[in-house]
Structures are given as structure tokens and as C-alpha cells.
């Protein structure tokens, strides 16, 4: 029986697992977590070198370490050649993991952690167990009392952690590694977390969990299989699973894990298209959103989230292909296949009583396949590297090492120079990063003053400039709504909005969003800028070139051409939008508007009636029907349509004005005057309306 494990030893010899929770601090932004990783991992490396001694004359590299080194080297070249070097190295801090330095330090941690010799396997088991207990209890309590939620884990991260924990501790439950009191609570814990996994039932992770558990069961010896698959255990697991299914049956899944990431089919299409343009080194980490826009499959327009722009693909592996190119992706694939080779080579080498190896093999299989079905966050990357390091550390000390390491003989002076150069470069980088941390803390408050301060400390991040552009644009709109407008202030805000969008475009000219922002600015304020519509068309056309399957952009361009009375060009882009999304009602409405402009009123009425059957009551469709009916002399029917339009949108100036004209034509000047006044209330500075109301009042 093992002696009890005390709290003192947890902090003395097991602090390497504390970041599992430290990285989830919700008061820190993603960049803050990146900053903490950058600080923690090098300190850990220095600690290991100090404890083990720094031997530079001979370096032993195992096969998996050489593969990791190759992967990181290719990753570095990819980031160095990126169009947006800042994001490639430091990441998009609002989008989990897309930073070279985080991946570099994490895999360095994997290598050093496994080779350090400081891992006490017995104590690591206890620390992992207590950490898992803490996480479960904390999440249950914080779900009832959100005010204490200082640690944040999303649903997918929790499922990954709990799946690994079940795989890791199921064999250990029957071993001597845990005390009888530990086993008592562990059984309850495993039942609860399996219930939670079954309740969410996120299929990709659940299937992977079953595959890993089946592999684990296969390598069990006969006595182990009898213990794990006893009748009592089978009955308990079945009841838990069926109860979870019963609770979730017929209810809407509120977790929406799949909605955060792109589907597998679309991810494969985008990755395949990206290989043709950036075969060797990709476009750099953090560039997936640009690739998504450029190669976005048109069939996505028929999904429920068709207007969403994804920054992540289906999984980490599918992110690598466009971001890092073929070389880095293949090196990571070879590393993963090599680990699988080790796992399957160990199947017949496991000892009967080696429960810990069975635990590590099941968890390692789950984790080595995880990058192919799930995206990585800081937390899941840490779990991935920690458990693989634990696995290799156990192999180093046991009798399971399959391949001898390759010994590299190098000159000590040269390696010392390289090592200390890297140390000083890291220290410089760490000090340099402080200003980015400050900028990120300011950007957590989305107001103008805070974002201006963020830009002062970090002028390489386009998201800050895009947010400022939107703020200035909204300020101009708010000023326009005032009765006493300050036109100089409006012009100043528009100018500032344009400058911020230009700066974002300067940083990342391959992103669709800055061009789209430009188009919105010119479109919304075309009345206050010379050639506003033409400038908006130019910006939105550039956006459409970067996202050619977007029907919204095509429709907005068509509307601008319609405003310029270029009906043929308008029809061309409305039809383009419909070719991308045939059920896009906004584009169909635009086609009807062009028909009315071209005096094809009867065809327009039929199209609008068909459209009305698909959309239900719609103020704008009723208005356009009224226009077409008025044009062909059906005044009574036109009045009816205008009234319906106003019924569903009482503030629709066009419908109110058109109804007033139709009533005046009918001879009902008193009612027409009432509607003219309503239009005037909405547009008090319209000189023609003022004159019209006065004329009718005098009659």
C-alpha cells in the first residue's frame, strides 16, 4: 500500500501540472495566457538543466525528438515567410491557439519534461487525480455561482480532459498505485465524468474515446479484462449511458461544440485548394481565416451558419495544411504515425501487472489522434504535451524503449554559444512582449480610448484598427440622428474611420474584412463623400475577390449599382448572388427591383408574390409590389400593398410617401396629407416635402 500523499509534496515536486488550471484563468486574455506559457516553460527548462547538469559535448536524440525538431524548424520557416508575420509568431489572441511561440514552447516542454528525470510517477498520478477532482467540483459549483468562475474551460476542453482522465485511471483503479480511500472516491468520480461525456455526446470525441478504450481493453491481460468488464461494471456503465441519453433525448443540444468549428468536408476542400497556392510553407500560422474566405465552398451558403467566417477548421491537422504547408504537415503526420507505431509495438511487451503502462497507452492513443478531429486550445495542447511526456518518461525508465538514440557529437563551445544566444534572444523577446500584454489588457475594454491606448502599444494587430473603424463609423451615424447635426464632426468621424480601415488593410492586405469595412463606410455615407458609391463598389469588389463565394458581398455591390441606375450591372451581381445561394431572398428582391426599373412590372409582381410565399409578411416586398402595381395603373391594389407594408414597418418612409402619392392620385387629398406629414416627421429637413405639405394645406 502506498503512503498518503501530502500537500507539501504537491507544490514541492509536482508544480509542473499546476498550469493545467493556471492557463484557464478567465481574468487573463489569450495573450496573457501566451505570456504565462512563455514565462513558465523556459523557467522549467532552466530548472531541469540546473538539476540534471548541462552536458553539451554529446546529445542523444531519440527518433520522436528528431521528428519534433524537424516539425518546429519547418514551422519556424513557415511563420518567417508569412504575409502577416506578427500574427504568425504571436497569434490571434482572440482565437485560442495560432502562435509559433506557444507551439514551440509546448513541444519543447514535451521533450524536456520527458527527459528531465524529475518526474515521480507515483506522485504525478496523485497530482493528476487531485487536479481532476478539483476541476469537476469547481465546475459544478461555479455553474451555480458564476461569480466565482475564475477558471474557464469550454465544453470541448472539459470533454477532452475527462476522456483522458477516464482512460488514464480506469486501469489504475485495479492497481496498487492508489490507496483504498483513493479508489473509493475515484469510482464515484469516474461515474460522474462518464455521465457528463455521455450527456453531451459529442460524436467525434466520443467515438475516439471508445476507440482508445477498446485499444486499452485489447492490451489488458486476462485477469485485467475480468476485473474491468465485470458484470457489475457493465451494468453500471450501461445504466449511466442510458440515463444520460434519456435526459438528452428530444432536448436541444445547447453546447454547440460543432458550431464553433468548420465541418470536416469543407475543411478538406479548403485544405486541398490551399496546397495548390502555398505548397511548401503555407501562409503562416494564424492565416486560416484568409484561406477560408478565398477557398470557401459555395455549398456552405446552404448551412444554418452560412454567414459565419471561421478562423479555425475542423481540426488542428486541417489548420496546419494551409497555414504551414505540406512539409510541416507531413512532418507532424510522420511524428503521429511514429507514436502509433510505438504504441502498437508495445502491445505484446506489456507486463501483466504494469497497469500504469496500460493507462498511459490508452491516454496516449486518444491524444495522438486528437489533433485530427479537434482544434487545439492552450489547455488541450498542454494536456497533449504533458501526457505524451509522461508516457515517454515512463518508457525511458522502463524496459520498453524500442529504439536506441542517435548520439550527436558536437563541439561544446559551439553549442554553448548557440544555447546562450537563444537564451538572450528569448529574454529580449520576453521583455519586448510586455507592451503587447499591456495592449491586450487595454483592448479588453471595447471603447475608443482603450483601443487607442492598445494601438499605441501594439500597432501590428489589425483587429484593434478594425474595432476603432467601427466605433468612428457608429459615432458618425449617431451624430446624423441628432436634430442639430454637427457636420464637421460627422466628416471627422468618417475620415478617422477610413484611416483605421486603411491601417488594418496595410497590416493584412489579404483579409476580406478591411475591404468590407471600407465598402460599408463609403456605402453608408455616400451622400457625404464624392463618388461614394463608386468607391464603395471598388472596396466591396476587392472584398468579393478575396471571398468569391459570398452572396452578401455580391448583393451589396448590386445595390450600389442600382443606386447609380446602372441596371445591367446591378442585375449581373444579383444573379451572381443567386448562383451562389439560390434561396437568398435579398438578391431575389433586387432582381424584382431591376425588373421594375426596366418596366417589366408584371414579371416583377409574379416574382415578388412567389418571394412573399417563401418569406412570409415582409414590408419591403409589399412596398415593391405596390410600386409595380402603381406603375401598371392598378392604384387600388397598390394602396392595399402600401398599407400592408406600413402595417409591418410603420417607419418605412418609402411606403408612407408612396401611399400618400397613390391616395392623392385617387383624390383622397386629406388622407394623403396625413401620410405626407408622417413622412415629414421622419425627414424634417426635406425641402420638397415641406413645400408639398404647405401646398396641400392651402387647398
Short recap of the structure:
The protein has helices spanning about 5-15, 20, 30-50, 65-80, 85-90, 100-115, 120-145, 155-170, 180-200, 205-220, 220-230, 230-250, 255-260, 265-275, 290-295, 315-345, 355-370, 380-395, 410-430, 435-445, 450-455, 460-480, 485-505, 510-525, 530-545, 550-565, 565-580, 585-595, 600-615, 620-630, 635-650, 655-665, 670-680, 685-699, and strands at about 60, 405-410.
Q: Tell me the number of helical segments per DSSP (H or I, 4 or more residues long).
A: 34
Radius of gyration (Å): 32 Å
Structural class designation: mainly alpha
Q: Give the spatial strand order of the biggest sheet.
A: 1-2
**N- and C-termini, Cα separation:** 106 Å
Largest sheet: 2 strands, antiparallel
Query: What coarse outline follows from CA principal-axis ratios?
Result: elongated
Got a strand count? 2
> Which stretches are poorly predicted, pLDDT < 50 over at least 5 residues?
1-28
Q: Taking all residues together, what is the mean pLDDT?
A: 81
The helix content is over 70%
Number of domains: 4
The share of residues in extended strands comes to: under 5%
Set down the secondary structure blueprint.
Blueprint (H helix, E strand, L loop, with lengths): L6 H7 L5 H4 L7 H23 L5 E4 L1 H18 L4 H6 L9 H16 L5 H24 L10 H18 L7 H21 L2 H17 L2 H7 L2 H18 L8 H4 L3 H14 L10 H8 L20 H30 L9 H15 L8 H20 L8 E4 L2 H21 L1 H10 L4 H10 L4 H19 L6 H21 L4 H13 L7 H15 L4 H13 L3 H14 L4 H13 L3 H15 L3 H13 L3 H14 L4 H14 L2 H14 L4 H12 L1
Antiparallel strand pairs: 1-2
Helix pairs in contact: 3-6, 4-6, 4-16, 6-18, 8-9, 8-10, 8-17, 9-12, 10-17, 14-16, 16-17, 17-18, 20-21, 21-22, 22-23, 22-24, 23-24, 24-25, 25-26, 26-27, 26-28, 27-28, 28-29, 28-30, 29-30, 30-31, 30-32, 31-32, 32-33, 33-34
Amino acid at each position: 500500500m502506498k503512503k498518503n500523499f501530502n500537500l507539501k509534496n504537491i507544490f514541492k515536486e509536482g508544480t509542473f501540472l499546476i498550469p493545467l488550471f493556471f492557463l484557464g484563468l478567465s481574468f487573463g486574455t489569450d495573450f496573457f495566457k501566451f505570456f504565462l506559457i512563455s514565462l513558465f516553460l523556459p523557467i522549467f527548462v532552466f530548472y531541469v538543466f540546473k538539476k540534471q547538469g548541462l552536458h553539451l559535448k554529446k546529445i542523444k536524440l531519440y527518433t520522436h525528438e528528431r521528428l519534433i525538431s524537424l516539425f518546429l524548424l519547418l514551422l519556424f520557416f513557415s511563420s518567417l515567410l508569412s504575409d502577416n508575420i506578427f500574427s504568425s509568431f504571436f497569434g490571434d489572441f482572440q482565437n485560442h491557439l495560432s502562435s509559433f511561440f506557444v507551439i514551440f514552447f509546448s513541444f519543447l516542454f514535451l521533450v524536456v519534461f520527458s527527459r528531465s528525470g524529475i518526474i515521480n510517477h507515483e506522485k504525478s498520478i496523485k497530482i493528476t487525480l487531485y487536479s481532476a477532482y478539483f476541476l469537476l467540483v469547481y465546475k459544478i459549483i461555479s455553474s451555480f455561482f458564476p461569480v466565482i468562475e475564475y477558471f474557464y474551460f469550454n465544453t470541448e476542453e472539459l470533454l477532452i480532459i475527462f476522456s483522458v482522465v477516464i482512460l488514464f485511471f480506469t486501469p489504475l483503479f485495479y492497481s496498487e498505485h492508489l490507496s483504498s480511500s483513493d479508489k473509493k472516491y475515484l469510482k464515484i468520480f469516474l461515474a460522474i465524468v462518464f455521465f457528463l461525456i455521455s450527456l453531451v455526446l459529442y460524436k467525434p470525441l466520443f467515438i475516439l474515446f471508445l476507440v482508445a478504450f477498446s485499444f486499452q481493453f485489447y492490451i489488458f491481460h486476462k485477469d485485467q479484462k475480468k476485473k474491468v468488464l465485470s458484470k457489475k461494471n457493465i451494468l453500471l456503465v450501461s445504466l449511466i449511458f442510458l440515463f444520460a441519453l434519456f435526459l438528452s433525448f428530444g432536448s436541444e443540444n445547447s453546447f454547440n461544440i460543432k458550431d464553433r468549428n468548420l465541418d470536416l468536408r469543407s475543411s478538406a476542400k479548403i485544405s486541398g485548394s490551399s496546397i495548390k497556392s502555398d505548397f511548401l510553407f503555407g501562409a503562416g500560422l494564424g492565416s486560416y481565416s484568409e484561406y477560408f474566405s478565398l477557398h470557401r465552398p459555395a455549398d456552405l451558403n446552404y448551412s444554418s451558419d452560412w454567414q459565419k467566417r471561421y478562423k479555425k477548421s475542423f481540426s488542428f491537422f486541417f489548420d496546419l495544411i494551409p497555414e504551414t504547408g505540406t512539409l510541416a504537415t507531413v512532418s507532424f503526420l510522420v511524428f503521429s504515425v511514429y507514436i502509433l507505431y510505438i504504441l502498437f509495438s508495445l502491445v505484446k511487451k506489456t507486463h501483466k501487472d504494469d497497469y500504469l503502462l496500460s493507462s498511459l497507452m490508452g491516454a496516449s492513443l486518444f491524444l495522438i489522434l486528437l489533433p485530427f478531429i479537434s482544434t487545439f486550445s492552450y489547455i488541450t495542447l498542454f494536456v497533449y504535451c504533458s501526457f505524451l511526456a509522461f508516457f515517454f518518461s515512463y518508457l525511458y525508465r522502463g524496459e520498453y524503449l524500442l529504439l536506441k538514440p542517435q548520439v550527436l557529437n558536437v563541439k561544446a563551445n559551439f553549442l554553448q554559444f548557440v544555447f546562450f544566444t537563444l537564451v538572450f534572444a528569448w529574454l529580449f523577446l520576453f521583455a519586448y512582449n510586455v507592451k503587447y500584454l499591456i495592449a491586450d489588457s487595454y483592448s479588453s475594454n471595447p471603447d475608443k480610448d482603450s483601443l487607442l491606448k492598445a494601438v499605441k502599444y501594439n500597432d501590428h494587430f489589425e483587429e484593434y484598427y478594425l474595432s476603432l473603424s467601427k466605433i468612428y463609423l457608429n459615432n458618425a451615424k449617431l451624430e446624423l440622428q441628432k436634430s442639430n447635426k454637427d457636420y464637421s464632426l460627422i466628416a471627422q468621424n468618417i475620415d478617422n474611420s477610413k484611416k483605421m480601415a486603411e491601417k488594418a488593410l496595410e497590416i493584412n492586405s489579404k483579409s476580406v474584412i478591411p475591404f468590407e469595412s471600407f465598402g460599408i463606410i463609403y456605402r453608408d455615407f455616400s451622400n457625404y463623400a464624392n463618388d461614394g458609391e463608386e468607391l464603395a463598389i471598388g472596396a466591396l469588389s476587392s472584398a468579393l475577390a478575396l471571398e468569391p463565394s459570398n452572396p452578401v458581398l455580391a448583393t451589396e455591390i448590386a445595390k450600389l449599382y442600382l443606386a447609380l441606375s446602372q441596371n445591367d450591372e446591378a442585375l449581373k451581381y444579383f444573379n451572381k448572388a443567386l448562383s451562389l445561394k439560390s434561396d437568398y431572398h435579398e438578391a431575389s428582391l433586387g432582381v424584382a427591383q431591376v425588373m421594375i426599373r426596366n418596366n417589366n412590372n408584371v414579371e416583377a409582381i409574379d416574382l415578388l408574390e412567389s418571394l412573399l410565399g417563401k418569406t412570409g409578411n415582409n414590408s419591403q416586398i409589399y412596398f415593391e409590389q405596390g410600386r409595380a402595381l402603381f406603375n401598371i395603373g392598378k392604384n387600388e391594389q397598390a394602396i392595399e400593398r402600401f398599407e400592408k407594408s406600413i402595417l409591418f414597418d410603420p417607419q418605412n418612409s418609402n411606403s408612407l410617401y408612396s401611399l400618400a402619392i397613390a391616395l392623392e392620385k385617387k383624390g383622397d387629398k386629406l388622407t394623403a396629407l396625413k401620410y405626407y406629414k408622417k413622412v415629414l416627421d421622419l425627414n424634417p429637413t426635406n425641402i420638397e416635402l415641406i413645400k408639398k405639405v404647405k401646398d396641400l394645406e392651402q387647398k
